[in-house]
């Protein structure tokens, strides 16, 4: 009898604690034949914990920031997303008007231009003799390969454009818009130029595209200022009623947006997809709530840290958002 009474007390105590903390049950994810991506994400939401729960909440926060007409969305992207097959998703986000300011790396724009000029990235292997790849003219990004001879074609395309730009003052954004307006194929550069989406690339010199510029200015003068771009991104943040941030990867793009939030307006929404760790103290692995201490994130903001390979998470998030928003 004592054992029965103890079990009853334990059960009653558990129910009381659940009620006190307003806990929801974890509902197992159910996969049905023919279900849509968004339906799968909603199943993850009903589970609500671990990576599945974070992914589902990421979609919720991104949907809220895109639907908020008073919110300007700052999209920061780093990492090998174009070699990883994510190029069309980025273009889609830009074309759909979900991004008010885009900060990316010179590498992303280099690979985007490579594909816009008719080249491709190829499925390879990470278990390979890299010295042999080098002899055969291949550049490797994990298991994605790119032919090294793309750089000659890039030079043929870019140098006449830069020659026409020589002797004038340009921001990095204006410089990239000028290149984008000369690209014929659908691309990140082209859509930003056509839709006049502010495109910032503060570390442009750290890329194949940057090397092309350096090569050109050895013979001709081309003035490109990085600090006017900084003024513009701060102005966009400062004049917004609310701000939302979406980080795919970290690095310079994330910090560039973070400092704009710090010196203008704390973000009301934030989502970050990363695989980096926080313990070393770098920006790429820093949890979003760390930004509260800097004045980069509103303490009352809706935010989610999603620890996942972006080539897995981004297509799912994007597909779910398209179901909800279109």
Description of the structure:
The structure is a single chain. The protein is of the alpha/beta class. The chain has a domain at 71-118 and 150-312: 3-Layer(aba) Sandwich (Deoxyhypusine Synthase). It has helices at 2-21, 37-47, 50-67, 87-95, 106-116, 130-136, 150-165, 172-182, 188-195, 208-217, 227-238, 251-262, 310-325; strands at residues 71-77, 101-103, 122-123, 138-141, 144-147, 169-171, 199-200, 223-225, 242-248, 267-274, 297-307. It has a six-stranded parallel β-sheet, sandwiched between helices. Helix 12 links the parallel strand 9 and strand 10 (267-274). The chain is globular and about 85 Å long.
């Amino acid at each position: 009898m004592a054992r029965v009474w103890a079990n009853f007390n334990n059960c009653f105590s558990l129910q009381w604690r659940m009620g006190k903390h307003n806990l929801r049950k974890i509902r197992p994810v159910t996969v049905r034949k023919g279900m849509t991506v968004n339906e799968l994400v909603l199943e993850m939401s009903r589970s609500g914990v671990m990576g599945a729960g974070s992914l589902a909440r990421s979609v919720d926060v991104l949907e809220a920031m895109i639907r908020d007409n008073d919110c300007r969305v700052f999209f920061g992207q780093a990492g090998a997303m174009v070699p990883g097959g994510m190029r069309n998703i980025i273009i889609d986000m830009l074309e759909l008007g979900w991004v008010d300011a885009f900060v990316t790396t010179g590498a992303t724009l280099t690979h985007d231009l490579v594909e816009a000029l008719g080249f491709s990235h190829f499925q390879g292997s990470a278990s390979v003799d890299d010295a042999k790849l080098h002899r055969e003219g291949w550049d490797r990004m994990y298991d994605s390969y790119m032919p090294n001879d793309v750089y000659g074609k890039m030079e043929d395309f870019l140098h006449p454009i830069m020659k026409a730009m020589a002797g004038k003052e340009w921001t990095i954004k204006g410089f990239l818009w000028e290149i984008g307006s000369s690209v014929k194929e659908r691309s990140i550069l082209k859509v930003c130029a056509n839709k006049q989406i502010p495109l910032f690339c503060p570390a442009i010199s750290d890329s194949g595209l940057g090397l092309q510029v350096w090569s050109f200015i050895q013979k001709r003068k081309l003035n490109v200022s990085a600090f006017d771009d900084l003024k513009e991104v701060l102005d966009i943040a400062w004049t917004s009623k609310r701000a939302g941030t979406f980080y795919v990867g970290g690095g310079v793009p994330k910090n560039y947006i973070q400092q704009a939030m710090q010196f203008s307006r704390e973000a009301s929404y934030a989502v970050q997809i990363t695989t980096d760790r926080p313990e070393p103290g770098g920006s790429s692995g820093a949890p979003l709530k760390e930004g509260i201490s800097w004045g980069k994130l509103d303490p009352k903001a809706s935010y989610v840290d999603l620890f996942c390979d972006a080539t897995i998470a981004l297509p799912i998030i994007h597909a779910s958002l398209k179901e909800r928003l279109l």
